[in-house]
What does this fold into?
Amino acid sequence: MKALILKEPGAKPDIRVVDSPEPSLTSDGVIIKVAASGICHHDISVMDGTLRRGTKTDVILGHEISGTVVDVGVDVKDINLGENVVTTLTSSCGVCDTCQNGRDYLCDYGHGYGHGIDGGFAEYIGVGQQNVIKVGNIDLEQAALLACPIGVCIRALTDRASLQSYESCAVFGSGGGLGIHAAQLAQMITGNSFAFTYSPEKVERIIELGIEQTFLLGDGIDSTELIMAIFQDEGVNVSFNPVGSSMIETAISSLRYEGRALLMGEVSSGIISPNLSANLIFKNASLIGSTGANKTQIQMGLDMVVKGLISPVIGQKFPMDDISQAFQKIKSRETIGRVVVIPWA
It folds into this structure.
């Protein structure tokens, strides 16, 4: 089969199309013909060398994977040939205490697809039956977004930050892959979601998704002052920050007393201000990291998409041969929502 391997990370990563052996079928596994694979900043961090620890040599990237089952192991139950599926973000055993407690994304024996083990930038991938979620007849390109970003946002906002229906939420970087889905989810939960973006061309699309309270940030605008003015100096209960250090002070300063700031990623190299500690202390606030999603949360994302409560947003699609172009598009933040790569016909 054809596959894309990362030969050498860097500012211009060496990514090669190679002939790779097709995955071997295990008795409790399935083989999936890949339909689409999303690209998130985890992939970008592996490609550019920011994230090297635990990365497999010549890894096949991609952990947001959808496709069709084309082979089934003899011990597999309730998964049939021809069914459309998505994978979890990591492999897992399904039997360790961590998995049994609903934290399969942190399995004691698991590895991240496209990181510790090969992922979905290939024609086929083999996974254990416990790492498959059936998706029915929904569009497979959209389905690639169910685990990440949608499931990841569900875990962050409902599990980690415990966002309640009577609370408010500010979503920064709301034109990106995580942000645009977090804004929809927050609006669904509270009806009081506020989206912030630095990209004028993304504002209209965000509003079309039902987040009418969308604001454009820019040079010369004090983000914290704007947000506190919107919230009458009280701030929000939860802030969602997928951007990282360049927005962390704003995300915390915009909180009300006992607010919770979610830190979801690092796509810049900003320096954290010394005022950060003071804001956390005097607001009695929480800074919360979040990553991953379990199977239940991915299934919740599927149910929301089927009911029309969340729309998967794909900004651009690229054939896998054009992965370098996709890489540059994401690095430049030119696309709205997720970029998806499509395998060879």
